[in-house]
Amino acid sequence: VPNPKEIAGRRAAExxxxxxxxxxxxxxxxxxxxxxxxxxxxxxxxxxEGVPTSLETERTARELGLALLDLDRVEALxxxxxxxxxxxxxxxxxxxxxxxxxxxxxxxxxxxREAIVIGQDKLVERLGVRFLLPIExxxxxxxxxxxxxxxxxxxxxxRLADARKVYRTDNGNEILDCRFPGGIADPKKLERELAQxxxxxxxxxxxxxxxxxxxxHENGEVELRQRPG
Length: 229
Ligand code: A5P
Known about the structure:
Layout lengths: L3 H9 L8 E4 L3 H17 L4 E4 L2 H10 L2 E2 L8 E6 L3 E2 L5 E2 L6 H9 L1 E9 L13 E5 L4 H10 L3 E4 L15 E6 L7 H9 L4 E4 L1 E2 L5 E5 L5 E5 L3
Parallel strand pairs: 1-2, 1-4, 2-3, 4-7, 7-13
Antiparallel strand pairs: 5-6, 6-12, 8-10, 8-11, 9-10, 13-14
The structure holds arabinose-5-phosphate.
Arabinose-5-phosphate binds next to α2 and α4.
């Protein structure tokens, strides 16, 4: 049986052209993209550099021999290939299941074309019905942020690394995984409201940032969907 993540991840690597400056996303789907890119570098002499969106991806890229790029050396990126946890019909996303939402969003914000690689099971009618929305929080501010989120109707769960340890992001912050009963009716509005809470560093809501979806289907087909408009 074909693995939807693998076929989508590998197909997305074909969007890359010689000389491009890339964003390297995070997660198990993007792993396949990075592997395929390393093959193309070896086989075709493809010249590329990329900004990693997490320490994990930085490590993988190094192991694969992919050239890395620092944000102080680049103002804009041609293409970022990243995963997502949920995608709605308007290409709004929930990200951050792997905890990398902040760096992923920073990289997406300077990217001309953001390609999202997913298996078909990530497509949803409404965000937040199945998946919790990760919100990155400054540890000092956590109690304040938690109460503010509850006033917005959320149930919050502090992410743990294991039974005794609180999870920390690559940036030293914590994550509150939030359930919004009934899902997220207006992602854009919620993103604005979250950004106004002091102590919230970033949310895993990505609104208007994705341009193309690379969707792996269980029948082995890969579908490319461009954002309408
Ligand atoms: C990382 O923080 C996330 O945003 C990932 O991009 C997301 O969790 C997708 O991961 P998989 O490709 O492993 O499903």
